[in-house]
Amino acid sequence: MSVAAELHSPEKPASETRKILGPGGNRVRVLEEEKGKKERLKKKHSNNNTNNNTAAVDAKKLVSESPKAAVLKNRVGDRYSETSFCNGSVMKSVSSKRKVKNSSGVIAAKVVPHGRETLAVTRVAPGLVKRCDWITPNSETIYASFHDEEWGVPVKDETKLFELLVLSQALAELPWPTILRKRETFRRIFNNFDLLSVASIDEKKLLALSTNGNSLLSEQKLRAIVENAKLVLKIQQEFGSFSDYCWRFVSHKPIRNGFRYARQVPAKTPKSELMSRGLMQRGFRCVGPTVVYSFMQVAGMVNGHLVSCFRYNECNSNFNEDLDAEAKKETDV
């Protein structure tokens, strides 16, 4: 082929590789080009792997943030607070130094699931009332019920008054919750505090009660209960009733203390000292001013509830209702 013909011949496709003579002889210099293709293929494969890993991470993150455990992070200073929604209930996780407050009457209880400090939100039980300070959330139910239903209610019944006097005497050896738990045992031993039955307890039975391994009280207290029952019978003969004798120390009307704090409540008062002195002059035993004041409080002669307690006004209302009932009875007669 001539030079002119070659010049006018059509160009070869770019895809064809032109052979170039090199110093090493008649060889095709395509090694670099093939090497470049391999590098591009390798780079493309590496990018595909990276994309696959990213997709896997995104999928894992999507699962962890499903509606059952969605985590919403909000930056608060240098701490994070997280809110998770699990089965329709709200769980809050905060740093140990941060407190979560809620104005809708919510109490936060501390739980630790999976090593994380969280606050399980529970609602305050409805119907909570304000009681005297000595009734706490840790108080026994029987003690709280006694406070809500009996303590401070005016009592005029003879048998009930004698029972409350015995229980008040037992306070020298036992606390109220223990006495209330053993109340049925007291009633069984003393035949429901029937005055004639208690007064007739002889020495043999008294010794059996005091030497019993399960004795409720000391021998001194047991003897005092028996002797006091005999003296109550004498008071009934002299004054008509034990109730009238006791209530005359408060002019037959409960004393309303009106204390706001437990520290203001005294252990004894001039009225309790006066009743104590009167009982001891008649031969009663174990009836010091402190025991008598406890008796006056539990029998409703003194409204010892704090003014912030829901029972303070209720006990006053109970006495007024009793007065109305007595007045109506006298009118009917």
TrEMBL record:
Keywords: Metal-binding, Zinc. Residues 8-19 have a biased composition (Basic and acidic residues). GO terms for biological process: base-excision repair. Zn(2+) binds at residues 132, 147, 305, 309. The keyword Metal-binding applies. The keyword Oxidoreductase does not apply. GO terms for molecular function: DNA-3-methyladenine glycosylase activity; metal ion binding. SUPFAM superfamilies: DNA-glycosylase. It holds the Pfam family Adenine_glyco. Residues 1-57 are annotated as: Disordered. This is GMP synthase [glutamine-hydrolyzing].
